[in-house]
Amino acid sequence: MFKLQNNLQIILPMNKLLKFFFLIFILFFSISASEINFFELGKVEFKKNNMEKARLFFEKDIVRNPKNKDSYIYLAKIYKKQKNIDEFEKNLNTVLLLDPKNEEALYFLILQKIKDGDFDFADKKVKIFEKVCSNMCQKTKELKKKIKKTTG
Fold it and tell me: How many structural domains are present in the chain?
């Protein structure tokens, strides 16, 4: 044991040491927290049909990465399952703001507008869908058929 005349000489270095370890702990914790992939966790919960947990994970992912269109698409799918059409459309429109040529968002939005009876909007979007499709081109005929069937 060290005997010093002034106890402050021992306390000050200990305070600096504690501060140093505290900063290292905070830094380590923040680095490991930023490595959490909320999008992947959301997909896992979505596949398990845990819509509320999935929704929270996708919303957390959007907070970290507001331009992740995939999180918005999953949110739209969740809201569609929950029959919350306003939120469903809002998330699809956000995807289309970020990526105007997103086939999946266009397809879902066209189907919803046909269901709502907004055939002019649906027809305009089908024309866009037709121009930009690469993976879902087979759906173009289906969409046109649905518009024609409902309009007469």
Answer: 2
Average pLDDT of the chain is 84
The DSSP H or E segment spanning 81 is helix 69-81
The model carries a pTM of 0.73
Residue type, 132: V
Residue 28 lies in a domain: no
Q: Which domain holds residue 44?
A: 37-99
Angle, to 10 degrees, between the axis of helix 38-47 and the axis of helix 51-64? 160
CA distance 151 to 133: 24
CB atoms within 10 A of CB 48: 10
| Whether the predicted pLDDT of 72 surpasses 80 | yes
